[in-house]
Amino acid sequence: MILPIIAYGDPVLRKKGKEITNDYPKLDELIENMWETMYGAYGVGLAAPQVGLPIRLFIVDASPFAEDEELSEEEKKELENLKKVFINPVILKEEGDEWAFNEGCLSIPDIREDVFRKPNITIEYYDKDFNKHTEEFSGLAARVIQHEYDHIEGILFTDKLSSLKKRLIKGKLANISKGKISVDYRMRFPELKKGR
């Protein structure tokens, strides 16, 4: 089932997610719905807060990035194989010189900005069967994970922009929270919710 994606301005996007246990109600169904929702919106990642749940869970499928001509074969392979569920993740290390990449977000449609992040991460997490993993990711793979990880920490990519950039997109962000935007996937807007 495709779930509505929560738009910028909803308080759930600012909550730090809570850890869950393997007896979390209907976890398999939730994960399945999140995959369907993400693919329906042409996303490469989706965090539980984006579907209204302040828990430490996100999914990633970075394979669309593997089609980039400029990537090395090694990078393409890493992205092709990056389809994972991350439960209760903890980033243990972020290393290297920060680099900029143009990011967007399903909760903040029609806004894309350059965001600086470190290129290498080490992350500990549980998969959908609650097996524990510690893995290293780099480049675009690391970036997609860092972006989704921020969601479960209550952080949005727009928080990482300069104060000038934030001022320039302020009006657009206000329109998103009011539902004054056209998207081709289901969304729930905080301003419209208040009015009901």
SSE run: EHEEHEEEEEHHEH
The second-level CATH architecture is Alpha-Beta Complex
Q: Provide a count of the helices.
A: 5
CATH overall fold name = Peptide Deformylase
Shape call: globular
Radius of gyration: 16 Å
On the 0-100 scale, what is the average pLDDT? 95
Multimeric state: single chain
- Number of individual domains: 1
Largest sheet: 5 strands, antiparallel
In spatial order, strands of the major sheet run 2-3-4-7-8
Give me the secondary-structure category.
alpha+beta
Q: Per DSSP, what share of the residues sits in E-state strands of 2 or more residues?
A: 25-35%
What is the CATH H-level superfamily?
Peptide deformylase
Distance between the termini: 24 Å
Report the strand count: 9
Give helix % range.
25-40%
- Give unreliable regions as ranges: none
CATH class: Alpha Beta
Characterise this structure.
29% of the residues lie in helices and 29% in strands. It is α+β, with helices and mostly antiparallel strands and 196 residues long. It has a single domain, classed as Peptide deformylase (Peptide Deformylase, Alpha-Beta Complex), CATH 3.90.45. The strands form three sheets. Strands 2-3-4-7-8 form a five-stranded antiparallel beta sheet, sandwiched between helices. Strands 1-9 form a two-stranded parallel ribbon. A two-stranded antiparallel sheet has the order 5-6. Strand 7 and strand 8 form a beta hairpin. The relative contact order is 0.21. The mean pLDDT is 95.
